[in-house]
Amino acid sequence: MGQLTLSGVTKSFGPVEVIKGVDLEVADGEFCVFVGPSGCGKSTLLRMIAGLEDVSGGTVTLDGREITNLPPARREIAMVFQSYALYPHLTVRDNMGLALKQAGHAKAEIRAATDRAATMLSLDALLDRRPAELSGGQRQRVAIGRAIVRRPKLFLFDEPLSNLDAALRVQTRIEIAKLHRDLGATMVYVTHDQVEAMTLADKIVVLRAGKVEQTGAPMQLYNDPANTFVAGFIGSPQ
Ligand code: ADP
Ligand code: MG
Hints:
By secondary structure, this protein is of the alpha/beta class. The protein has helices at 42-50, 92-102, 107-120, 136-148, 166-183, 194-200, 218-223, 228-234, and strands spanning 4-13, 16-26, 31-35, 57-62, 65-66, 77-80, 154-158, 186-190, 203-208, 211-216. A hairpin with a 2-residue loop joins strand 4 (57-62) and strand 5 (65-66). Helix 2 (92-102) runs parallel beside helix 4 (136-148) and helix 3 (107-120) packs across helix 4. The termini are far apart. Keywords: ATP-binding, Nucleotide-binding, Transport.
């Protein structure tokens, strides 16, 4: 399961309110994509769902359990960042297994989980390498593998492809779509790339200045945008 609900979520940094009351439902197994201009609050929203940022108001619920004030490690949520944030001194295997090790899982169990994730992401041959010995695309796959081994109910991706070149972006996007199918997990994915949004999403949430402007299936927003702002993001001709 992995059903996410945000109710009246707000966030202020000092006197400035940057998230202004977001209500959102993401169904179990759904691929939900956040789009919107730079600075509209996509990353802040994701960080609040992950527990990396305090919520100023409202609630976050996962499978009916309120998690608004739980520490990140207790949320059953994994986040994949744009910068891969791998530990340079650890091998691929140890980077992927670290969270399980910290949570006190047995060695054999960690090994089995990392082997499984490595196979899923074609990283089997790279398990003993260190991040410096990998390409950008391979590092991003390790970052995704690190999320998979925790078996989270919910995956969060913050512009995971934006540091990759065009060809790798397409390849990695296809891998993420496959991963979604294989795992059946709920995913919330931030991008400013229309093609990514249109091809990956079951549901697109268009954000504007800390509020939800429109929510819908890709073709629904494409064919019936609420206004020119949404049309500008989803790319239907004016
Ligand atoms: P996006 O990811 O959509 O580009 P962000 O969530 O990063 O937007 O930022 C939303 C707004 O919140 C921006 O105006 C940004 O400057 C502001 N902001 C983000 N993090 C902080 C912070 N730690 N302190 C102050 N302002 C912040
Ligand atoms: Mg951002």
